[in-house]
Design a protein that fits this description.
CATH superfamily: Vaccinia Virus protein VP39
CATH architecture: 3-Layer(aba) Sandwich
Number of helices: 9
Shape: globular
Number of strands: 11
Radius of gyration: 20 Å
CATH topology: Rossmann fold
Strand content: 15-25%
Helix content: 25-40%
Strand order of the largest sheet: 8-6-7-5-2-9-10-1-11
CATH class: Alpha Beta
Number of domains: 1
Length: 307
């Protein structure tokens, strides 16, 4: 059964520990044991069509759920066809998508093995959050269904914001997509009572008591980007607001649980998790990101670089 609690998290919780890893996240992830994290958050570089240099890699481990998707339940050999998505051949599915977008193989050749590793690292009651924009979200949904099974899909969250330039040649794009998958649909942790409530859009239509309490968020999150001024601003170009990560960590983990961010950037996940009493592991290959995280979270431990 899904775990639900109506009790808010105590504000006097002990601060969680944060560990920062500087290195390639695929190699770093391979050093962690199976099922080590209750929340895995991935905010990879968006595939904007700009020139990028990536290496197509193979995951070092195959998650049990992917193994179970094969015909006889046996682990697939390297290069073997995995099955899923209504029985269609997985490699054929990749080929179909490649037909529609010739950038597909490059981007997903980079991201797919990291998703597979993230799934291996996810606890049985854990939740994976993949943060993308409109260019890749639909490809991601189809392929993650094939990799992890459609039953593991929990939500498509829309983070809507209203900031920056707006084109007059089409509807301006002012949202990101966060795809949410759970390791075990019968066991995942979700604590709606711990999530910060938000104001009603029409408070006059509800009782004064409800208006004062606020409402539980839906799958559409209206939240500003990180303001240009204020305590959160680090100057890191792709920094995500604490409010978005706070909601994720509150809902899908408990105090003392471990949270992983494989594309940690400015360290928002670690800052939020530690404040909420969770331990966080942050990974990034960019030395500038590591410098920002060390300044933002001065009590974080910096792990030795893998040799």
């Amino acid at each position: 059964m899904t775990s639900v609690s109506a009790s808010p998290i105590a504000e006097d919780r002990p601060r969680g520990r944060v560990t920062i890893h500087h290195g390639d996240n695929l190699a770093v992830a391979a050093s962690f044991p199976d099922a080590a994290f209750t929340v895995v958050y991935l905010d990879p570089p968006f595939n904007t069509g700009r020139p990028q240099t990536k290496t197509v890699e193979t995951a070092l481990h195959r998650p049990a759920s992917v193994q179970g998707a094969t015909d006889a339940g046996a682990a697939p050999a390297t290069g073997a066809v995995r099955r899923g998505f209504h029985g269609r051949e997985y490699e054929r599915l990749r080929g179909d998508l490649l037909t529609y977008d010739d950038r597909f193989d490059d981007y997903w050749g980079f991201l797919e093995p990291r998703l597979v590793e993230a799934w291996r690292l996810l606890a049985d009651d854990g939740t994976l959050y993949l943060h993308l924009d409109y260019r890749e979200a639909h490809y991601a949904k189809v392929l993650m269904d094939a990799l992890f099974g459609r039953a593991s899909f929990l939500n498509e969250i829309i983070w809507a914001y209203d900031y920056g330039a707006k084109t007059r040649r089409r509807w301006p794009t002012k949202h990101d997509t966060i795809l949410v998958y759970v390791k075990d649909p019968a066991r995942y942790w979700f604590d709606s009572g711990a999530v910060d409530r938000e104001p009603y859009m029409a408070p006059g239509l509800v009782t004064a008591e409800k208006a004062a309490r606020g409402k539980l968020p839906t799958d559409v999150w209206w939240h500003t980007i990180v303001p240009t001024t204020g305590r959160e601003k680090t100057g890191y170009p792709t920094q995500k607001p604490e409010g978005i990560l706070r909601r994720i960590v509150q809902a899908s983990s408990r105090p003392g649980d471990r949270v992983l961010d494989l594309f940690a950037g400015s360290g928002t996940t670690g800052a939020v998790a530690a404040a909420l009493g969770r331990d966080a592991v942050l990974v990034d290959a960019n030395p500038e990101a590591v410098a920002v995280m060390r300044e933002r979270i001065p009590d974080a431990e910096v792990a030795p670089t893998l040799g």
